TrEMBL record:
Compositional bias segments (type: Basic and acidic residues): 311-326, 332-393, 402-422
CDD domains found in the cross-reference section: CYCLIN_AcCycL_rpt2
Sequence ranges assigned to domain Cyclin-like in this UniProt record: 40-143, 156-238
Biased composition, class Polar residues, residue ranges: 268-287
A biological-process GO annotation: regulation of transcription by RNA polymerase II
Classification via SMART domains: CYCLIN
InterPro entries the UniProt entry points to: Cyclin-like_dom, Cyclin-like_sf, Cyclin/Ssn8, Cyclin_N
Binding partners and assembly: Interacts with the CDC2 protein kinase to form a serine/threonine kinase holoenzyme complex also known as maturation promoting factor (MPF). The cyclin subunit imparts substrate specificity to the complex.
Protein name (record): Cyclin-L1-1
Region (Disordered): 268-437
A molecular-function term among this protein's GO annotations: cyclin-dependent protein serine/threonine kinase regulator activity
Keywords for this protein: Cell cycle, Cell division, Cyclin
Family that this chain belongs to: Belongs to the cyclin family. Cyclin L subfamily.
Length: 437
C-alpha cells in the first residue's frame, strides 16, 4: 500500500497510561471525561461557526495529540479546544477570525455553566486577554507538534471499503457516524486511519447484521489486523456506556474560559451587591459641589476596596444623615442655591470679557481694511502719474521731429501741460498726506 501521509504520531497503551496528566495526579476517568468534553466543545463550535466536518475532525485530533504531551493540570481544556478549532480552520482552508471563535466559545460556556448571557465587548480588556491567550495556546500546540499538523482521517477510506465489499447504503451512514464518534476517543493517536476505518465498518456491519467475507478475511485486503479491529470496537462500546461529559476543574491557571477577568469582576461587583442604593449624606454632596478633591478621592478608594464591615458602617452613617436631611431640608436648599448663584456669576463674567475682546478685534479689522483701501488708492494715482509721464515723453520725442516752425507753439503747450501736471501731482500728494495723517 502507498502511504501519502506523515502520520508518525502514534502511542502505545503503556505511553497512554503514563501520560503527563497521570503524572500530575489526574486519574484515568477524569482524563477521559476532559478529553470527551473538549471534543464536544470542538464539535459544537464547528457547527456554530458553520465549518465543514474535516475542520472539526482535525481539531479533535490536534486536541488529543497535544494532551498526549501536556497535562490537563497545566493547560485549560477550553482554551486548547478553542485554539485547536482556530488552527484547524486554517489547516483545512476554511479560516475563521479569532473574534468569531472567542464569541462562540464565550457563549457556549455561559450556556453550559448556566451563567448570564453577556455580550463580549470587543474593546474591553477581557477580550484582549482572551485573544492573546488564544494565539499563545496556538503557538504551544504548534511547538508540541513540531509544526507537523497533517492529519489523515478514516472518513475517506470508509466509502472505498464499503464499495469494495458491496454493502447496502444504510451501512455507509452508520459507519460515518461511528467514525465521527471515534474522534472523541484516543483511537486517532493509537491506530492508523485505515485500522480505524476497518473497525468502524466491522461495528456497523455487526449492528445491521450484514455478513462480511471471512475466507479470506476482508481486513487483510485493507492492511489491518483483527486485534486492532477488536480494540476499536471495544473503545467505541466503552464510549457509548459513559454518561454525558461535564467539565472537571483541574487546571491551575484557571478553570473558566473567561478566567482572565473573572477575579477583577468579582472585586468590582462585591460592593454593589452588599450596599443597596441609598442617597449619600448632605455633607458629602456639599463637599463635591465645592470641589473638594481629597474627600472625593478618599471616597472612591474606600468604595473600591471596602470590606463588609466598612460597608455596614457607611450604611449606618448614611441612614443617620438621611434622617438629619429630612429634618433640615431648608439648609441644603439654601446651600445649593448659593452655589448655583456663584457658578452663574462666574460663567457670566468671562462671557462679558469675551464680548469686549470680540469688539476690539472687529475695530482692528476695520482699521486695517481702511488702510488697505487707502494704499490701493495711492497706488492707482501713482500708476496714473507714471502713465501721464510716459505720454509726455512720447510727445516730446515727436515734437523734436517736427519742423522748426512749430517749436514755439509746442513749447507753450508743454509749459501749460507741465503746469497742469505739477498742480495735479501737488494736489494728489497733499491729499495722500492728509489721509495718512
Amino acid at each position: 500500500m502507498i502511504y501519502t501521509a506523515i502520520d508518525t504520531f502514534y502511542l502505545t497503551e503503556e505511553q497512554l497510561q503514563n501520560s503527563p496528566s497521570r503524572k500530575d495526579g489526574i486519574d484515568e476517568a477524569t482524563e477521559t471525561t476532559l478529553r470527551i468534553y473538549g471534543c464536544d466543545l470542538i464539535q459544537e463550535s464547528g457547527i456554530l461557526l458553520r465549518l465543514p466536518q474535516a475542520v472539526m475532525a482535525t481539531g479533535q485530533v490536534l486536541f488529543h495529540r497535544f494532551y498526549c504531551k501536556k497535562s490537563f493540570a497545566r493547560f485549560n481544556a477550553k482554551k486548547v479546544a478553542a485554539s485547536s478549532v482556530w488552527l484547524a480552520s486554517k489547516l483545512e482552508e476554511s479560516p475563521r477570525k479569532a473574534r468569531q471563535v472567542l464569541i462562540v466559545f464565550h457563549r457556549m460556556e455561559c450556556r453550559r455553566e448556566n451563567l448570564p448571557l453577556e455580550h463580549l465587548d470587543l474593546y474591553s480588556k477581557k477580550y484582549l486577554d482572551l485573544k492573546m491567550e488564544l494565539s499563545r495556546t496556538e503557538r504551544h500546540i504548534l511547538k508540541e507538534m513540531g509544526f507537523i499538523c497533517h492529519v489523515e482521517h478514516p472518513h475517506k477510506f470508509i466509502s472505498n471499503y464499503l464499495a469494495t465489499l458491496e454493502t447496502p447504503a444504510e451501512l455507509r451512514q452508520e459507519a460515518w457516524n461511528l467514525a465521527n464518534d471515534s474522534l472523541r476517543t484516543t483511537l486517532s493517536v493509537q491506530f492508523k486511519s485505515e485500522v480505524v476505518a476497518c473497525g468502524v465498518v466491522y461495528a456497523a456491519a455487526r449492528r445491521f447484521q450484514v455478513p462480511l467475507p471471512e475466507n479470506p478475511p476482508w481486513w487483510k485486503a485493507f492492511d489491518a489486523e483483527k486485534s486492532g479491529i477488536d480494540e476499536v470496537c471495544r473503545v467505541l462500546a466503552q464510549l457509548y456506556s459513559l454518561p454525558k461529559a461535564h467539565y472537571i476543574p483541574v487546571c491551575k491557571d484557571g478553570d473558566s474560559f473567561t478566567f482572565s477577568n473573572k477575579s477583577w469582576d468579582s472585586q468590582t461587583q462585591a460592593l454593589p451587591k452588599e450596599v443597596p442604593n441609598s442617597s449619600p449624606p448632605a455633607d458629602t454632596n456639599a463637599s463635591i459641589l465645592k470641589g473638594d478633591p481629597g474627600q472625593a478621592n478618599s471616597e472612591s478608594i474606600g468604595a473600591r476596596g471596602a470590606l463588609p464591615k466598612v460597608a455596614s458602617d457607611k450604611l449606618k452613617e448614611s441612614k443617620k444623615s438621611d434622617d438629619e436631611s429630612k429634618s433640615m431640608p431648608t439648609d441644603e436648599t439654601a446651600r445649593d442655591e448659593s452655589m448655583l448663584k456663584l457658578k452663574s456669576e462666574r460663567k457670566t463674567e468671562p462671557i462679558g470679557e469675551r464680548s469686549r475682546d470680540r469688539d476690539r478685534d472687529r475695530e482692528r479689522d476695520r482699521l486695517k481694511a481702511r488702510d488697505r483701501d487707502r494704499g490701493r488708492d495711492s497706488d492707482r494715482e501713482r500708476e496714473r502719474e507714471e502713465a501721464e509721464r510716459d505720454k509726455i515723453k512720447d510727445r516730446r520725442h515727436r515734437s523734436r521731429d517736427r519742423g522748426k516752425d512749430s517749436e514755439h507753439s509746442e513749447k507753450s503747450k508743454h509749459s501749460s501741460r507741465d503746469r497742469d501736471y505739477h498742480s495735479s501731482s501737488y494736489s494728489s500728494r497733499e491729499k495722500d498726506r492728509r489721509r495718512h495723517h
